[in-house]
Design a protein that fits this description.
Layout: E1 19-24, H1 31-41, E2 53-58, E3 65-66, E4 72-73, H2 79-84, E5 87-90, H3 107-114, E6 121-124, H4 129-134, E7 142-143, H5 150-156, E8 161-162, E9 168-170, E10 174-177, H6 182-195, H7 197-207, H8 234-241, H9 250-257, H10 261-272, H11 276-294, H12 299-305, H13 311-322, H14 326-333
Parallel strand pairs: 1-2, 1-5, 5-6, 6-10, 7-8
Antiparallel strand pairs: 3-4, 9-10
Helix pairs in contact: 1-6, 6-7, 8-9, 9-10, 11-12
């Protein structure tokens, strides 16, 4: 899935020009998912320690809503927050079973969502995707949801191109996360998209989570637990990360893990959710992004240090994955950087 790089670091609708994030609390919300945006975006600060986002929790009518955990939430705002927001996030609800059958949204929720300004970035966490789908906002788009709900979701919303194997889908102005904690991954991804790797790493450290998780949701789908004596690819992945600047072949990875190519590839996919080559490319892209943001190294040297070998190879991979060239990416996060 192509990631979309867009400068959203200035001119936000919140206080002091901060990017305003409105989180829509619906009846029957699970507290964990509802709290993810406030915790993650609240940890994003600039080099001077200034907050980069303002997060407001709202309801469709401004009234309190019950959680699924025995308490009610008094929101800070009503639907006016959705209308003013730069990003709207919809966590899941466990109190709208009609959505699982493709039924309509409650009128107040439908009206509140209809009041969101065109161009506002829309995000769902876990089964919050049902709300966006019921509003018609995912029609003919790629999206994800909790892996355990994928078949039900397809039946209810056949126009949505659902992919249950990923942690999140970035379709530009509409983004959806997989189940539960994948909402953390998506919020960190948005911070990185807005402000780059350094800010995201700081936020991740404050939240005591990794800034980037390998693989996708497929690695968490229920399957038999391997025997404790079965070898894993963990040590080989650590070995490869120390050699990103060097050519590393699939045969060398398998040899390090002391497995056949077929066994290594199968076990790697089971553990990580992607092929070894896809994983290695993702790690090299992450390294290249960090170097482009944090150094003035020439693009040729960035390509060499991240393992792409040539500037042309790095350009091809960045355009395929991020939609931008290395120079354009650097200018996004280092506006004063030389060409």
């Amino acid at each position: 899935m192509q990631e979309h790089i867009k400068d959203t670091t200035h001119g936000g609708s919140g206080a002091a020009g901060r990017h305003l994030v409105a989180v829509l609390a619906l009846p029957g919300f699970p507290p964990f998912e509802l709290g993810i945006p406030s915790r993650v975006f609240g940890s994003a600060v600039d080099d001077d320690g200034e907050a980069l986002y303002e997060v407001v929790v709202c309801t469709s009518d401004g009234a309190p809503v019950p959680s699924d955990s025995g308490f009610a939430l008094q929101p800070a705002a009503g639907p006016e927050a959705l209308a003013a927001a730069d990003t709207v996030i919809v966590p899941p609800t466990h109190a709208m079973p009609e959505l699982a059958r493709g039924g309509p949204l409650p009128p107040a929720v439908a009206e509140a969502i209809a009041g969101i300004r065109p161009g506002t970035r829309l995000v769902s966490i876990c089964s919050g995707s049902y709300v966006l789908a019921a509003a018609g906002l995912l029609d003919d788009r790629p999206a994800t949801t909790h892996w355990n709900l994928a078949d039900e979701f397809r039946r209810a919303y056949p126009r949505v191109r659902i992919d249950e194997d990923v942690l999140f889908v970035d379709d530009g102005d509409v983004l959806t996360s997989a189940g539960v904690s994948a909402g953390v991954d998506l919020c960190l991804h948005l911070i990185r998209r807005d402000h780059g790797v350094a800010v995201t790493n700081r936020a991740a450290r404050m939240c005591v989570v990794p800034p980037w998780r390998d693989g996708g949701q497929a690695q968490f789908i229920d399957r038999p637990v391997p025997e404790p004596t079965v070898a894993t690819t963990t040590a080989t992945r650590a070995w490869a990360l120390e050699r990103l600047a060097e050519p590393v072949s699939l045969a060398e990875l398998a040899a390090h893990a002391r497995m056949s190519l077929r066994t290594f590839t199968r076990r790697f996919r089971d553990e990580v959710g992607m092929t070894p080559v896809q994983w290695l490319t993702a790690q090299r892209l992450e390294t290249a992004r960090h170097l482009l943001e944090s150094s003035d190294l020439p693009v040729d040297l960035v390509a060499h240090r991240s393992g792409f070998g040539s500037a042309n190879s790095l350009r091809q991979h960045m355009r395929a994955s991020l939609g931008v060239s290395p120079i354009a990416y650097r200018r996004t996060f280092q506006p004063a950087a030389p060409a």
